[in-house]
Design brief:
The complex is a heterodimer of chains A (about 300) and B (about 250). Chain A is α/β, with parallel strands linked by helices. Chain A is built from 10 helices and 13 strands. Chain A folds into 2 domains: about 200 residues, P-loop containing nucleotide triphosphate hydrolases (Rossmann fold, 3-Layer(aba) Sandwich), CATH 3.40.50.300; about 80 residues, 2-Layer Sandwich (Alpha-Beta Plaits). In chain A, the strands form 3 sheets. A 6-stranded mixed sheet of chain A has the order 5-6-7-3-8-9, sandwiched between helices. Chain A has a 4-stranded antiparallel sheet with strand order 11-12-10-13, covered by helices on one side. Chain B has one domain. In chain B, about 85% of the residues lie in helices and about 0% in strands. The longest helix of chain B has 28 residues. Classes of the chains: A alpha/beta (about 300), B mainly alpha (about 250). At the A-B interface, helix 2 of A face helix 1 and helix 5 of B.
Chain lengths: ~300, ~250
């Protein structure tokens, strides 16, 4: 159980309703201080609504949340003034968010951190999308918040710009708690220590990424290559071992079948399945355990 | 003091944006061209009108025209105030900041009013020209300027409200224009009713009725109350409109 003081964000039974639509339904999860928390879910799942509520942009309909510290927020569309220079823009944002702060030193520090020093005097409208996204992140950082919320920071960027933003997030995690929503599961695997998966306004799963992936090993995936396999054998296999699913595909090049087997229970029956497939009628060629990746987790959880 | 300082942060940015944009110079050029040509014609006409004073022949019609031209110009000036912020997603940046909704509205209002002052300042040449020909009724000129500026303040308040309703600048300007023209045409409906009290009430609700007093040199207290109430009413509507983003 987490102590409240260890939590950067604690959300309890948060709901948000719009006329005729429930956007969030009793959402409960927490974000540990100093963690990079991935917020996943398909389009329209309620990610942006949750992030907007935590950042104070919209009120919740019911429920409660506590945020320990200031929040910097980068919405899905970065809030940029195209006719301002990067430096002027960041100074303006600092002025309206923290009117008593020493503007210039903060702005210079954030520009250094986000790699914007070389373009500080350029108009934002003339920058590439990758740099504009950096400016968006810089505006979330400029008033020195403890928590940074990034709503799909890599959306619409080319692979190079995406890698740059990823590096930037890695750099920022030393000093901040970061919550970010994304569709790029690769980003989550590389950056996040914790994840929350949301679908149709409900939390599907939330917790440390390693723990969630480990818990899924109860649904072990096996991969096998066999010489012969028919539909009757597939049905027999599913029935005999009470499998969740078994799929076969014929490899025309190698003239063998590729089986993908998903187990319902524990990994105990792995050996029996291997023995069954090794019989003369089937002829086992290869047999190995597949590691479930985040993409599969995502698909499994959503459906 | 802190309250004003926060307004000043946004005001400075707004003014810088406006004066760096070509729109204000194009509108000022058009305005000067139109109003200069009208002033020249009124001066020529004044020579032939032997019964009318310079105030009746030049001052009253020229200020009437300034007022009418701003019914067209104010929607163009105010259209971007909130519509552009919405389109750029920067309105949320402002709403999450230390600025309150009213501070944002006041900053936008003052910046638009400064733009109007910039445009109107070019008309100061008219009283100077009249002074050279011996004109000296400065009370009427002063109250006419006050009337025009109060009317334009009311137009700006309407423009800000309309701009807060949409993220499309053209829709915002058309809506402002329709509201302003519609409220002016309300005067016509006064003639359609036999009810004296209703006619008086409708008349009181229109901007031109109060403006006319100022241009005659009459600064009535109820007109001042009207303009202040008008501004407050539209500021509150704009405030509600901005808050509705949270609903």
């Amino acid at each position: 159980m987490n102590k409240t003081s260890d939590l950067a964000v604690d959300i309890r039974n948060l709901s948000k309703t719009y006329p005729g639509r429930i956007a969030l339904n009793n959402v409960t999860f927490s974000v540990r201080k100093g963690s990079v928390h991935g917020f996943l879910g398909p389009n329209g799942a309620g990610k942006s609504t949750t992030l907007k509520i935590i950042s104070g942009l919209i009120p919740q309909s019911s429920g409660d949340y506590t945020v320990s510290g200031k929040v910097g927020f980068l919405p899905e569309h970065p809030p940029l003034y195209p006719n301002m220079t990067v430096k002027d823009y960041l100074k303006f944002v600092l002025d309206i968010y923290a009117p008593d702060k020493n503007a210039i030193s903060n702005v210079l520090e954030v520009m250094n951190k986000t790699g914007l020093s070389t373009v500080s005097e350029r108009l934002i409208g003339n920058l590439s999308k990758g740099y504009q996204q950096r400016v968006g992140i810089a505006q979330a950082l400029v008033h020195s918040p403890e928590i940074i919320i990034l709503d799909e920071p890599t959306v619409g960027l080319d692979p190079v710009a995406m890698a740059d933003i990823r590096e930037l997030i890695k750099k920022l995690k030393k000093d901040h708690t970061i919550i970010f929503s994304t569709h790029q599961l690769h980003d989550v695997e590389l950056l996040c220590s914790d994840i929350t998966l949301i679908n149709h306004g409900d939390i599907v799963v939330s917790g440390p990424l390693e723990q969630i992936l480990e818990s899924l090993k109860t649904k072990l995936a096996l991969s096998a290559k066999v010489e012969h396999f028919s539909e009757e054998e597939r049905v027999k296999l599913v029935k005999k071992f009470n499998l969740e699913s078994a799929e076969s595909q014929f490899d025309h090049e190698k003239k063998n079948y590729h089986l993908k087997i998903i187990l319902k229970g524990s990994a105990q029956i792995k050996k029996e399945i291997a023995q069954y497939l090794a019989t003369d009628g089937i002829g086992l060629l290869e047999f190995f355990e597949e590691k479930l990746d985040l993409e599969e987790l995502f698909v499994q959880m959503i459906h | 003091m802190k309250y004003l300082k926060k307004i000043n942060i946004l005001l400075k940015k707004e003014l810088k944006d406006s004066f760096l944009s070509p729109l204000i110079y194009i509108l000022t050029g058009l305005f000067c061209l139109m109003i200069g040509w009208l002033f020249f014609n009124y001066l020529l006409q004044a020579k032939t009108l032997t019964t009318a004073t310079m105030t009746q022949a030049v001052i009253t019609p020229i200020f009437g025209n300034i007022n009418f031209i701003f019914v067209f110009l104010c929607p163009l000036l105010t259209m971007r105030a909130f519509a552009e912020e919405k389109k750029q997603s920067t309105l949320d940046l402002l709403l999450r900041s230390e600025l309150t909704e009213f501070q944002i509205i006041f900053a936008k209002f003052i910046s638009n009013f400064v733009l109007v002052l910039f445009m109107i300042s070019f008309t100061l040449i008219f009283p100077i020209i009249l002074a050279l020909s011996g004109y000296s009724d400065w009370g009427v000129v002063g109250s006419s300027y006050a009337g025009v500026l109060l009317s334009i303040m009311a137009y700006i308040a309407v423009g800000l409200f309309c701009s807060s309703l949409t993220d499309n600048q053209i829709v915002a300007s058309l809506l402002t224009f329709c509201l302003l023209l519609g409220s002016m045409l309300m005067v016509i409906s006064v003639n359609a009713t036999d009810n004296y009290l209703l006619a008086l009430l409708i008349q009181y609700l229109t901007v031109p009725f109060h403006y006319e007093g100022f241009v005659k040199g009459l600064v009535r207290s109820y007109s001042l109350v009207y303009f202040v109430s008008y501004l407050l009413f539209f500021f509150i509507l704009t405030h509600k409109s901005l808050q509705s983003r949270k609903w």
